[in-house]
């Protein structure tokens, strides 16, 4: 080992000037600026960063990895129960219940009936690391259905610490005025709290904004905006500020931009601490759930989705997600089958059991690049959050069309990056395999992940990068 270090020591540049000279030689006359790039928020990414000093880990797992959360989006309770059994045998430590018409269900989902939930509840194990009910236009009704489970000792731990998925702000953005009002969510949360519920009643879900084309800072700002809205609701109910913060869970989307994904999760923890400080609340950690981006899932050459999902899952794990869901690689083709679900689960097992990604406390701490991205992204997101608050809060901003307009501009910039080739999709814009196309180009925008055409003017429209790419290649 010492010989290896001695040999490599002489090959590495000793300072930035020496490195820059070597880089200039390799560039052969090209500008040094060609090594720089920028994020969707205009944050400059340098080719080289010095090591960060004086930094502390933003989270600590204490040797316990994140929860592996499997989605239950089947169209019958019986098939969902069978999936629970397979996932339990395969090592899943959490489940995500996705009822029909929930944005996260991708056009499928469990029957919206208390009888279906009762069947699924009977199949769930007595202990789980994470149990989530994904935000839905009728989440307040679904939340009330768990009341009988809270009275049963065998289910108390599972259901009392679940995430209810009450996200009226996200549903307003996803479904428009068809969604349930915030006061209905608050009433459901209060009702369950009196029955011993101690989990996360509200969910500030960033996926709706991400899937509409929001930049990283916009997604984080929308999460904060929704959280601030729920804090005001709780304040009106007379709830203690610390308890109000503890009742909110956070969800983010993570795509194949590895370092930006790591920085996004770390920035969210900084932003959460800043929001607590602004509200006069004691600092307490937040619970973050991460899910691989649906907008990057392709129907063409679908096995390439495995590459993107693995990178995203790695970024989520390194960034400090408390629980992670990996979408099956065939999610753009219809309801995922058993093999795709197994690979989604095993992708995380490889990262946890073989790569040991979940052991270290904040692996990105001290990295010059990660720390710089984290700080810059947190500052941009806080500025966007302040803009939302200046517009009267996120609900007022949605009704006025302000935040929708900014996200539409980001989506258009995303489209231009795709057109310019600076946002490659392997199997679609890079090395496409026409033989693997499962749907004609003109049908790509009507796959299940798309929103129906009946949305009102408040709602955001989902983005599918593959549909844009196919459209551009066909023009």
What does this structure look like?
It is a single chain. With 475 residues, the chain is of the alpha/beta class. It has a domain at 67-372: Methylmalonyl-CoA mutase (TIM Barrel), CATH 3.20.20. It has 19 helices and ten strands. Helix 14 (305-319) packs across helix 15.
The CATH class of the domain at 67-372 is identified as Alpha Beta
Distance between the termini: 56 Å
Which homologous superfamily in CATH is the superfamily of the domain at 67-372? Methylmalonyl-CoA mutase
Looking at the structure, the CATH topology of the domain at 67-372 is: TIM Barrel
Write out the strand line-up for the largest beta sheet, numbering strands in chain order.
5-4-3-10-9-8-7-6
Low-confidence spans: pLDDT under 50, at least 5 residues?
Answer: 438-453
Helix content: 40-55%
Number of strands: 10
**Helix-strand string:** HHEEEHEHEHHHEHHEHHHEHEHEHHHHH
Mean pLDDT: 89
Ordered list of secondary-structure elements with their pairings:
Elements: H1 2-9, H2 16-27, E1 37-38, E2 44-45, E3 67-72, H3 77-89, E4 94-97, H4 114-123, E5 130-133, H5 139-144, H6 147-150, H7 153-160, E6 163-166, H8 168-175, H9 182-193, E7 200-205, H10 207-211, H11 216-236, H12 241-246, E8 248-254, H13 258-278, E9 288-292, H14 305-319, E10 323-325, H15 338-354, H16 368-390, H17 394-400, H18 402-420, H19 465-474
Parallel strand pairs: 3-4, 3-10, 4-5, 6-7, 7-8, 8-9, 9-10
Antiparallel strand pairs: 1-2
Question: TL;DR of this structure?
Answer:
The protein has 475 residues and is of the alpha/beta class.
């Amino acid at each position: 080992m010492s010989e290896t270090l001695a040999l490599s020591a002489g090959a590495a540049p000793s300072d930035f000037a020496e490195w820059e000279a070597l880089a200039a030689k390799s560039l052969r006359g090209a500008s040094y600026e060609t090594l720089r790039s920028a994020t969707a928020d205009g944050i400059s990414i340098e080719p080289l960063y010095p090591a960060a000093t004086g930094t502390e880990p933003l989270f600590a797992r204490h040797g316990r990895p994140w929860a592996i959360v499997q989605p239950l989006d089947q169209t019958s309770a019986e098939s969902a129960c069978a999936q629970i059994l397979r996932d339990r045998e395969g090592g899943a430590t959490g489940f995500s219940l996705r009822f029909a018409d929930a944005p996260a269900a991708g056009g499928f989902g469990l029957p919206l009936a208390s009888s279906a939930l009762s069947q699924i509840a009977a199949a769930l194990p007595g202990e789980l690391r994470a149990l989530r009910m994904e935000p839905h236009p009728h989440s307040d009704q679904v939340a009330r259905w768990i009341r009988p489970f809270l009275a049963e000792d065998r289910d108390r731990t599972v259901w009392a610490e679940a995430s209810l998925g009450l996200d009226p702000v996200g549903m307003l953005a996803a479904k428009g005025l068809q969604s349930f009002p915030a006061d209905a969510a608050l009433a459901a949360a209060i009702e369950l709290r009196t029955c011993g519920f101690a989990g996360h009643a509200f969910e500030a879900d960033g996926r709706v904004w991400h899937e509409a084309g929001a930049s990283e800072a916009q997604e984080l700002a929308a999460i904060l905006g929704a959280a601030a809205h729920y804090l005001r609701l709780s304040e009106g109910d007379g709830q203690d500020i610390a308890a109000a913060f503890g009742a909110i869970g956070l969800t983010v989307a993570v795509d194949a931009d590895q370092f930006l994904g790591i920085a996004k999760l770390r920035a969210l923890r900084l932003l959460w601490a800043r929001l607590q400080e602004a509200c006069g609340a004691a600092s307490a950690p937040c619970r973050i759930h991460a899910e691989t981006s649906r907008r990057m899932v392709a129907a063409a050459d679908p096995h390439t989705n495995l590459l993107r999902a693995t990178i995203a899952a790695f970024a989520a794990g390194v960034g400090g997600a408390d629980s992670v869901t990996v979408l099956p690689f065939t999610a753009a083709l219809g309801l995922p089958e058993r093999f795709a679900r197994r690979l989604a689960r095993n992708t995380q097992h490889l990262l946890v059991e073989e790569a040991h990604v979940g052991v270290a406390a904040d692996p990105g701490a001290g990295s010059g690049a990660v720390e710089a991205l984290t700080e810059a992204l947190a500052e941009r997101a806080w500025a966007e959050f302040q803009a939302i608050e200046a517009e009267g809060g996120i609900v007022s901003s949605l009704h006025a069309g302000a935040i929708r307009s900014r996200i539409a501009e980001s989506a258009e910039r995303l489209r231009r990056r795709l057109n310019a080739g600076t946002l490659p999709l392997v199997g679609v814009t890079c090395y496409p395999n026409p033989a693997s196309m499962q749907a004609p180009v003109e049908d790509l925008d009507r796959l299940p992940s798309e929103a129906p055409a009946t949305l009102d003017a408040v709602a955001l429209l989902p983005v599918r990068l593959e549909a844009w790419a196919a459209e551009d290649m066909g023009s």
